[in-house]
Amino acid sequence: LTTDPVKAEFGSQITTYEPQPKDGYKFDHDTAPLTITSDSAKNVLKVYYVKDTFGYTVEYYYDGKIDESKTGSFTATFEDQISTYAGKNITGYKFEKAQAEGTSAASTVEGTLTQPLTVTHVAADNVIRVYYIKDSFDYTVEYYYDGQLDASKTEGPTKAEFASQITTYTDKEI
Q1: What is the DSSP track for 95-114?
Q2: Upstream peptide bond of 19 is cis (omega within 30 degrees of 0)
Q3: Sign of CA dihedral 36, 40, 42, 44
Q4: Digit-coded pLDDT (tens) for 45-89
Q5: Buried/exposed code over 6-23 (b: 16+ C-beta within 10 A; e: otherwise)
Q6: pLDDT at 172
Q7: Residue 38: helix, strand or coil by DSSP?
Q8: Do residues 26 and 52 touch, judged by C-beta distance below 8 A?
Q9: What confidence score (pLDDT) does residue 174 get?
Q10: pTM for this structure?
Q11: How many helices (H) and strands (E) does the chain have?
């Protein structure tokens, strides 16, 4: 609440004033025009501001590279606290972390933020980044002799990163 007392002549009409916008707020309405009376308690021109809406984005990274096709744009009211987002994991990857711009704690639970994003009037500050990395999976090498599995020679399980190619194995010729 800001009040600016101004002198005006009895019966005059006040239609203009000095706007006092505040970051994150937008003009809503005012009570102009004001006709000056002898009762100073009634000589108040009220100017109303409301919280504005701003955009925020959720960016998705796979192995450290942003996937623009998965980035989402949303809107929220100034100072809203955004603490959830949609997970967009893809086959072969696992969730690593998520973090809101300007916060220090990274979340290790997909879909929620340890520290929420507080929506500001600065678009660059309204970003949630979600990171996925390639997962590792087990594989085994089986050895067959005359079409029959020799289970005693089976190797594994061994871990390998998703989409890696296994091109070598131990030669167990008998």
Answers
A1: EEEEEETT-SPPB-STTEEE
A2: no
A3: positive
A4: 999 999 999 999 999 999 999 999 999 999 999 999 999 999 999
A5: eeeeeeeeeeeeeeeeee
A6: 85
A7: coil
A8: yes
A9: 78
A10: 0.81
A11: 0, 15
